[in-house]
Design goal:
The complex is a heterodimer of chains A (174) and B (540). Chain A is of the alpha+beta class and 174 residues long. Chain A is built from eight helices and five strands. Chain A has a five-stranded mixed sheet, covered by helices on one side. By secondary structure, chain B is of the alpha/beta class. Chain B has four domains: 92 residues, Glutaredoxin (3-Layer(aba) Sandwich); 203 residues, 3-Layer(aba) Sandwich (Rossmann fold); 82 residues, Ubiquitin-like (UB roll) (Roll); 86 residues, de novo design (two linked rop proteins). In chain B, helix 10 packs parallel to helix 12 and helix 18 packs antiparallel against helix 19. Classes of the chains: A alpha+beta (174), B alpha/beta (540). Chains A and B meet through helix 3, helix 5, helix 6 and strand 5 of A and helix 2, strand 10, strand 14 and helix 18 of B.
Chain lengths: 174, 540
């Protein structure tokens, strides 16, 4: 019993060689899940929340922590759409392309945004200001078409309103 | 905790509730329209008018009429206000004193949209604060769980659910009682109960609403199921796209644990049940039960062939019961009112009610709970109010696995068999109404694009077939296709349907097949267009 306690405390005090504090948050999440391998998705969610995206170093760190082969961690990280292996922009704009939104013209909203920013969905503007994404359905069908600006859902969005919104973020490309 | 304590909590809560309850919706849809600002101003107005002793503002779950949010309801006066802005708050509270009329438009609660609903799953949705277990208990919550633990044997619970005729609300319609019986019959040992809240169908948000508005109802259903099948641990798998549902479930589980309603020795019996939340990561295929299990185990969400079914070989090889959110949310009411009562609602083979997310071009958007056997026409034209200035062309049910039902078949009864007969399916409950501006070929390409992006890549028919079908549909839309391409598309549909590994691939061709069946002329018109534009050479 005693030996396991010391082992655990050693694990939690051991810092990542880079000294990056965000790895500490990962340690806490892994510890809370008792380093169980089935907690991989939870841990990756936490990692993405702290780091913004899943860089190689983070994947390696998670693989070591949960004693999983890197191939397994990489496999899971690339399988799920919400995990991103590339850094995202300072702001995110997610256009819902669910059926109800699509029927109500979310395609035009996306098109207007693509034209204005000069990037396609899934891409980030060259200056790193904004990432443009699409969602399968965010379940806000009653207020279609819906767009999520930096985590806040907006309903019944017209193309010009979406452009106005990203203008507030200082995006004027295209 | 025993029954008297449970009743004490209920009575105390009822005594504390004020004479006038002002319900303000705090679910995702209304929140997006600033209902939190409305709630803040309502609270301030109550204080300013010195009415705190008899008026209480309650943040409640979804009231259903999401298209016209934010919604505010005066419970005791049966008044509903729509599209309320924070500036309207003052006038609403003032009107309670008889001072003038509120500036927000008043909704008509006698409209068929509300009047034709039969609320079983959503009986307390939009009436109680989902973040307080006391309100659920005051509305009669957790009494069914107490009843089964103390008065029923597990066998009797399974029989009761079987008798009720409840069928899986996730879409396929497998009899719930039969599923429970299979898991219950497995030898004792570690078993699991899983609630499938991976609501991935675009155009569907019933499960989100139930989880956000009444999380305890789902937990109670899961606990009853666990008691019936002999499980001691459960998982709720929720999409990461539903942060509010996750937050409220976490609160609900914590509260129930604290009162001894979840955890060890529930209601001082020897029944234990622990619930964990699992958060998805944006993969549609995880709604398929074997993929869901793989995802709960922390792996890639790849389905596997069945049998063995999860009931025999599920999470880590243990017997696992998987039901949809809405199925679990029906359980407490069935136990409370009895199986005969439940079986008296609906049609011969489809019992009870079903929640639909009525969206698209229809006038009244929102969630409705209707008895099985109602016709599509009643839903779309009476409850939905039809399409303003337009004509219903088709109703899409069942999402990417379902089909488009043409306006000529609007008198189809809404039950599992009738919908399957016309080439669609019940599905999880998405109902998207389309008008003459919607091109059906583009709709089927839209769904194919969805399936192409969501295929897990494990089996070839689905992985390659969806890409090929998508290309064929694009070719048709661009006016570059010949009749040979159409024949090939139909062949591909059959091949993918019959040879794919899981439900995603097997049902992926459905939107194409149903539009080809009812709207073939649109495909043919596009082929003709290609010839006229000279893009396609005419072969003798």
């Amino acid at each position: 019993m005693q030996s396991t306690t010391t082992k655990n405390s050693q694990k939690s005090t051991k810092e990542h060689p880079s000294g990056d504090k965000r790895f500490k948050a990962l340690d806490i999440t892994m510890k809370r899940n008792q380093y169980r391998q089935d907690a991989l998705i939870e841990v990756l969610h936490k990692a993405q929340e702290s780091f913004g995206y899943l860089e190689e170093d983070v994947l390696l760190y998670v693989a070591r922590g949960l004693k999983l082969p890197l191939s397994r961690v990489y496999g899971v990280a690339t399988f799920y759409h919400l995990f991103s292996l590339k850094p995202s922009g300072a702001h995110t704009c997610v256009v819902c392309l669910g059926t109800a939104c699509y029927v109500k013209g979310s395609g035009q909203v996306l098109e207007a945004l693509e034209q204005k920013t000069g990037i396609h969905q899934g891409e980030t503007t060259p200056d790193g200001q904004m990432s443009l994404m699409s969602a399968r359905c965010i379940g806000a069908c009653g207020i279609a078409p819906a767009v999520v600006f930096d985590g806040t859902v907006a309903g019944k969005v017209k193309p010009e309103e979406a452009l106005e919104k990203i203008k507030d973020w200082g995006i004027n490309q295209g | 905790m025993d029954i008297t304590e449970l009743q004490e909590i209920a009575e105390k809560e009822r005594a504390n509730q004020k004479e006038i309850r002002v319900h303000c919706c705090t679910s995702t849809g209304c929140r997006a329209a600033n209902s939190m600002g409305v709630k803040k101003n309502l609270e301030a107005a109550v204080k300013d008018h010195g009415m705190s002793d008899r008026v209480q503002v309650v943040g409640v779950g979804c009231m259903g009429f999401c298209g016209n949010g934010p919604l505010v309801e005066i419970d005791s006066k049966e008044k509903l206000y729509e599209q309320v802005t924070p500036n309207d708050a003052e006038s609403i509270i003032n009107s309670l004193n008889g001072g003038g009329i509120p500036t927000a438009p008043e909704g008509d609660l006698k409209h068929p949209f509300f009047a034709r609903q039969v609320r079983i799953v959503r009986e307390t949705s939009g009436k109680i604060d989902p973040e307080r277990i006391e309100e659920y208990i005051a509305a009669g919550g957790y009494q069914s769980l107490y009843k089964v633990i103390h008065d029923f044997t597990p066998q009797q619970v399974v029989e009761e659910i079987t008798k009720s005729g409840l069928r899986g609300r996730g879409g396929a319609g497998y009899p719930t009682g039969l599923k429970w019986a299979t898991v219950a019959k497995m030898p004792p040992g570690q078993k699991f109960v899983v609630c499938n809240g991976d609501e991935g169908d675009p155009g569907a948000f019933m499960d989100r609403s139930v989880l956000e508005s009444d999380p305890h109802r789902v937990l109670e259903g899961m606990a009853i199921a666990a008691y019936a099948v002999g499980a001691s641990e459960g998982f709720i798998y929720v999409r990461a796209e539903y942060p509010l549902a996750i937050e409220r479930l976490e609160i609900a589980i914590k509260q129930a644990k604290k009162l001894g309603i979840l955890g060890s020795q529930i209601f001082e019996s020897n029944f234990d049940f622990k619930v964990n939340i699992r958060i998805g990561a944006g993969a549609f295929v995880c709604g398929e039960e074997t993929a869901l299990i793989a995802s709960i185990e922390g792996g890639r969400g790849n389905p596997r062939p069945r049998p063995p079914y999860p009931a025999q070989h599920g999470i880590w090889g243990n017997p696992t019961l998987i039901n949809n959110v809405e199925s679990f949310a029906n359980i407490a009411a069935i136990i409370r009112e009895g199986a005969e009562w439940y079986a008296s609602i609906g049609t011969e083979k489809s019992k009870g009610t079903k929640i639909f997310a009525l969206t698209g071009k229809v006038k009244n958007n929102g969630l409705i709970e209707v008895p099985m056997g109602i016709t599509l026409r009643e839903i779309v034209e009476e409850m939905g109010g039809g399409i303003p200035g337009g004509q219903v062309k088709a109703v899409q049910t069942g999402g990417p696995s379902g089909g488009c039902i043409p306006a000529s078949l609007l008198d189809t009864s809404v039950d599992y068999e009738s919908l399957a007969k016309v080439g669609s399916m019940m599905g999880s409950g998405g109902m998207v109404v389309m008008d003459q501006d919607t091109s059906m070929v583009e709709v089927s390409r839209f769904y194919m694009e969805f399936c192409r992006g969501e295929t897990c890549g494990k089996c070839i028919p689905c992985r390659a077939g969806t890409v090929q079908m998508y290309q064929a549909l694009t070719k048709i839309i661009n006016g570059e296709a010949t009749e040979a391409d159409l024949v090939k598309l139909e062949e591909l549909c059959e091949m993918v349907k019959f040879t794919s590994l899981c439900g995603l691939g097997q049902s992926a061709p459905n939107p194409v097949l149903s539009t080809l069946r009812y709207f073939r002329e649109e495909y043919l018109a596009l082929l003709k267009q290609g010839v006229l534009n000279g893009k396609v050479a005419v072969h003798g």
